[in-house]
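PT: before anyone asks, these are the final sequences, not the draft ones from last week. 940 residues across everything. Please model them as a single complex and drop the result in this thread when it's through.
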Amino acid sequence: MVEGSVLEACERRGISRRSFMEFCAAMATTLALPSSYAQVIANALTQKRKPVLVWLEFQDCAGNTESMLRSNHPTVEDLVLETFSWEYHETIMAGYGKAAEAALSRVVREEKGKYLVVVEGAIPTADDGVYCTIGGRAAVDIAREVCSGAAVNIAVGACAWDGGLVRSNPNPTGALGLQDAVPGVKIVNLPGCPHNPANTAAVLVHYLTFGEMPALDPLNRPLFAYGQIIHDQCERRAHYDAGRYVQEWGDEGHRKGWCLYKMGCKGPEANFNCPTVRWNNETSWPVKSGHGCIACASPRFWDTKSPFYERLPHPTGFGVDVTASEIGWTFVGAVAAATAAHGIAHAVRGKLHPETAETGEKAVPREEK
Amino acid sequence: MPRIVIDPVTRIEGHLRIEAQVDGHQVTDAWSSGTMFRGIELILRGRDPREAWIWAQRICGVCTTVHALASVRAVEDAIGVEIPDNARLVRNIIAGTQNVQDHIIHFYHLHALDWVDVLSALKADPAKTSQLAQSLSDWPKSSTVYFKAVQDRIQALVGSHQLSLFSSGDWGHPAYQLPPEANLMAVAHYIEALELQREFIRIQSVLGGKNPHPQTYLVGGMATAMDANEPEATINPERITLLNQLVTNAETFVHQVYLPDVLAIAGFYPEWFHYGAGPGNFMSYGDYTTGNIKDPAEFMISRGILLGRDLSTVHPVDTKNITEYVTRSWYEYTGGDQVGKHPFQGETKPKYSGPKPPYEYLNTDAKYSWLKSPRYDGQPMETGPLARTLVTYASGNQQVKTLVDATLAKLKQPPTALYSTMGRIAARAVEADIMVGRLSNWVAQLDDNMGHGDVRIHNGEKWNPDSWPKSCQGFGFHEAPRGSLGHWIEIENKKIVNYQAVVPSTWNAGPRDAQGQRGPYEAALQGTPIADPERPLEILRTVHSFDPCLACAVHVVQADGRLYSRKLPVI
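LR: through. Structure below.
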């Protein structure tokens, strides 16, 4: 590493060398790397030729794009202009129509095996893919062509991961997440609704530094971000342990920041680093701001974690998401069935079939624990 | 001349395709097509109405929160619950922040590159750029050294042969008319606006835990517990200080960067006050009150309809007159596609009849879009900042009148110039100016209430669904950044049985109707000049001036396909 190029990189970004190195050190911490890796990260971020990145949007709400725009470490300006050559991203790119499509084809053709792909939104597979076309082409065809030639694909948000809201029962368009729509591509999943850009940026930096993805769980989620239960990292956990609960919205407990478990918080069933990374330059996260967690980074959360205001029956011990991380989602249904006799099935909540939810037993919202 | 196709239309939310017929360097006809459908329609059925907002919010991540607000309002209307004053203020702060944020991002990151030639900035003299910037505003980042650094940054991008987001732009297109210095200043502000939006939106993070998709609404109020003496309360003096700081920074940016930039750029493109007129009918539901949501007289943005560009008469809005057509959309209606249906009688039965992908052209003589065509009393309506500004102006609002007249005077344009591509841009800036000014008032009122010990944030009377009528229905509305948004809900036995949303971009981007009347985009594109048919940049200018949001627009949330013939709630 030539010292000059770090300086040059800093000048280009209009920041001091000190703050750049501070950022690299912070990134090493996020990724749970020894602090000596800061210099390695700095080297990676200042390489001459920028890796090429394309961002595909399918059945999306652009919420993950907006979330990326809020990236603070590194800043979005830095990501899209300096760190990567961000050559295709419908919501923010300069080109349009034919020029936009040409930019994408060029990457696929000339950067084969080297470019990164970020995917946002679900991919409809019913009826020849007519439910999402771009430039007259079906989303699934575009995904197949672009993602199969990529060095790695990063699925951001719930929809690109497992179909998310679009795939919720009854899934009218045959929507799937990337890993199911285009099986076999190299993938890392960054679920959440939306993804947290701090994690996505850390994954990108890790890739730049080491040429590979960080350690993943069996659902291909990075362990550093999805390896811990929200409940265990929650700043309100002490109140839970002490039996201090919010009983009604706006009551004394709510004003004092007590535990939201009785108001339906799904933190005990959710894996995510939301409480530590927080959102929007570490300003807050939903529980800090007074509302329960909806477990938006958990498998099929729309169907499995709602109703969102109903309190969990057994918040400690069995956690669906923990099981999912350890043994894979396909087993969770079986585990749920096996535990139904013990009244724990409610934790899975049968929302793969909403009808079950309608007929199923309801916990009384404010009943004493 | 062959037909021009723009697909994807980029720098918007969602998937939009424009086909246009061009003759003699002018657009003679145009077709607007939404090319994505998610079918959220069936998903809300049977759900708890109290959480409908969490689902509905995901209709759009760019217009995040706006569907959440319309949704809780619809449920509150249905079950009959009033929210405390503090909750109203918090909702205004969140919505107002969204409005200003969206307008800034739209201008700089979605629209500016239609007017600003990034590569021309390399030819600018930084000293002259500094002079230009200082002649326009007191914004401190305006030195020669600063603009030189920005120019070096662009030069480094160009020198690397990796222009990233800018790699596919139309640089050098004859329709770009800004001098190099204005281009350099605009690129600098494009980058600064990225920083501003990231900071400013922390307001929603304070109040909702995150953005996009803040998580804080409750039927009956908000989850933002407040207490002047509690460090862990969502709203406390420390957090009020942060809100004030974020609002002040945004206010400075709007006054010293956004507004001067709009005036400067508009000044270089005076002919764009003559293109892009649209259908000439405007609708606004009105919004933003510290009083009762059912009393439009107190709204900061007025409610009303203008017909045929006539500002002398503001017609009342009666939602009974709203219908949607699928004559040219990929859906079918029971009883035939020639008749419009009211939202409560609406159906969403997708039936794609377009070409099998991959395709080159749509058959625009038949059905050609996933968007429906909403009509008011059979007429197409433009909604959005221009519609709101005109309706509020025509309703006699003095603040809006003063600001609009002053803006027109600075631009040396008559009031009729507002019916145009550039008119939409100007109206959006005027609205952001007013809105950012109101934000500090709302924060101050919240602080004042808290100081006086009024910490009520939620009305729990109707939180328990056992307290609800067996069946009820409601209407919730919001003037979202992109226009008039309506949610209709019907509840039976504590569950959602019918849910319907008619959203701003459906009004604006929809296709033709049974009478063959063009939608607003299609109408506005008539007569657009085209310098180079291979690079139809001018089409983007007019389409972008509406700030399209296609995820919202494709007909979204209807609980089921069942037919309703009940009477509607009338607003």
